[in-house]
Design a protein that fits this description.
Blueprint (H helix, E strand, L loop, with lengths): L2 E4 L1 H18 L7 E5 L2 H18 L5 E3 H6 L8 E9 L3 H11 L6 E9 L11 E5 L8 E4 L1 H4 L3 E4 L1
Parallel strand pairs: 2-3, 2-4, 4-5, 5-6
Antiparallel strand pairs: 1-8, 7-8
Length: 158
């Protein structure tokens, strides 16, 4: 059974809320932020977050994929790196991303923004910014659709 749990309006609202929380948490450092999309959908969410922050604060935040930040050997010292992903569950993908960022140097901080947190952690990793907590069973799957990739904004529970 497939159930739509988030529609386009709610998804947009979640992204706006995360953007506001990022501004509030990092107001003194907003010129030192770097958004890093962990995967393709995470990168699209990062672009939307950066756009929302630019609309609210007139600040341009660089958005890079995890591969780009490594290939370009970006200087992360004194930066706040915000890793962005569509769904966090066990935490392994986030842990790998953190290790890649740390291989570039020691940033001021690494934070995590997720559209959906479905629980089931196997690593002690928590998100700083969460669009929506979706408690699931281990047999359920959360599928995020984004306009840029899938032609619609929605989140489904399968």
């Amino acid at each position: 059974m497939v159930k739509k749990i988030i529609n386009s309006i709610t998804l947009k609202r979640s992204i706006t809320r995360i953007a506001v929380e990022i501004i509030e948490e990092n107001n003194n450092y907003k010129n030192n932020l770097i958004f890093v999309g962990i995967e393709e959908a995470g990168n699209e969410i990062a672009k939307r977050l950066a756009g929302a922050i630019n609309d609210l604060e007139d600040v341009t935040i660089p958005v890079l994929t995890l591969d780009e930040i490594i290939k370009q050997n970006v200087d992360v010292k004194e930066k706040i790196v915000i890793l962005i992903t569509k769904v966090v569950s066990k935490g392994w993908l986030v842990e790998q991303a953190i290790n890649k960022i740390l291989s570039l140097g020691k940033p001021k901080a690494i934070q995590l923004a997720v559209l959906i947190d479905r629980g089931h952690r196997e690593l002690p990793i928590g998100a700083n910014y969460i669009g929506k907590n979706v408690p699931t069973s281990k047999s359920e799957f959360v599928e995020v659709h984004l306009n840029e990739l899938d032609g619609e904004d929605a989140v489904y529970l399968k």
